[in-house]
Amino acid sequence: MVKNMTMIVVNIFEAKAKLSEYLDLAAQGERVLICKRNRPVVELHAVQSARTAPRPIGLARGRFAVPPSFFEALPEDVLGGFEGAAGPALAGPCSGAGLLEVAEGAPEGGFARRGRRQARRP
Fold this sequence. Notes:
122 residues; 14% strand; alpha+beta; YefM-like fold
């Protein structure tokens, strides 16, 4: 099956004069190409409508089973990380104390970005 797509091509002057007509055509499925000095700038086409009905629940029933390990307690070092204690999993350059040391060692104006010009201060 071959689907030929035709497109309406107009310049800005004509688009301004007949905008509502072109919007109606776009809503019907046509594509309208708006040009500036015969160079394509914008294409009008219909927007897909948003879902109005709620998504049905239970479409994946029977496709996935929750493993029993999901309900087991987490290891103590992981729990300690959630509670603020630095266990063996959190020790190292990513621990909170290391970040504080890096922030305290930063220059007063902060770090400059490479490849960008800094704004001049008056």
